[in-house]
Design goal:
The chain is built from 4 helices and 4 strands. The protein has 203 residues and is an alpha+beta fold. It starts with a helix and ends in an 8-residue tail after the last helix.
Length: 203
């Protein structure tokens, strides 16, 4: 008499044999046994009975690839969260104003602020450039007169140049924000008009 477990073991199907195929330095190699050094490499698996492909195994990622993949996933998650936050903020903002004029006034405040930032940065750049030219002229006159440029003057030139570059970067950032604001205004007003349509969802 056979015990139930023994009967079940006899009835269980035998594991299917597999064929493994992989690339070894540009040459396709197939075998019914997978070498240990190929465990982490890309390969394809086939049924030894039917010859049909049963699966494809990708190569194991390196530490750098895993780190990059984690960064990409984190960036995608952050982008999705930002998009959802923007959608909710826009929904709340658009439903808070009775007319386009009210909405335009809000944008007008932001526009004036950025315009002032751009104007101030440009003024600072012009002033710093003028002062830097004067310092360079003084240094040039000393050199032409056979005198060395002292450390104090050289330091003033270097510092003025550093601040000028920083102001130029700030001006570029402000100008980019100002151009982006125009796009935001157009897009938001269009969304506002759509939501105020009688047949719009949530109107």
């Amino acid at each position: 008499m056979l015990w139930p477990l023994a009967v079940a073991a006899q009835d269980a199907p035998a594991p299917q044999k597999k064929l493994y195929c992989w690339n070894d330095r540009g040459t396709r190699v197939c075998s019914d046994a997978l070498p240990p050094e190929q465990v982490n490499n890309a390969r394809q698996e086939f049924s030894a009975n039917s010859g049909a492909r049963t699966s494809s195994v990708a190569a194991a990622m390196t530490d750098e690839e895993r780190a990059n993949a984690a960064l990409v996933a984190a960036q995608e998650q952050a982008d999705a969260a930002a998009a959802e936050t923007k959608r909710r903020t826009e929904q709340a903002m658009l439903t808070s104003y009775a007319s386009e004029d009210d909405l335009r006034r809000v944008f007008g405040e932001r526009t004036a602020l950025l315009d002032n930032n751009v104007k101030t940065a440009r003024y600072n750049i012009a002033s710093l450039r003028e002062g830097l030219v004067m310092l360079l002229q003084r240094a040039g006159e000393r050199e032409l007169g056979g005198k060395p440029v002292d450390a104090k003057l050289a330091g003033e030139i270097a510092e003025r140049h550093r601040v000028l570059l920083e102001q130029q970067r700030m001006a570029t950032r402000f100008e980019t924000q100002r151009a982006s604001l125009d796009d935001d205004i157009t897009e938001t007003l269009e969304r506002y008009r759509q939501m105020k349509q009688p047949d719009a969802p949530g109107a």
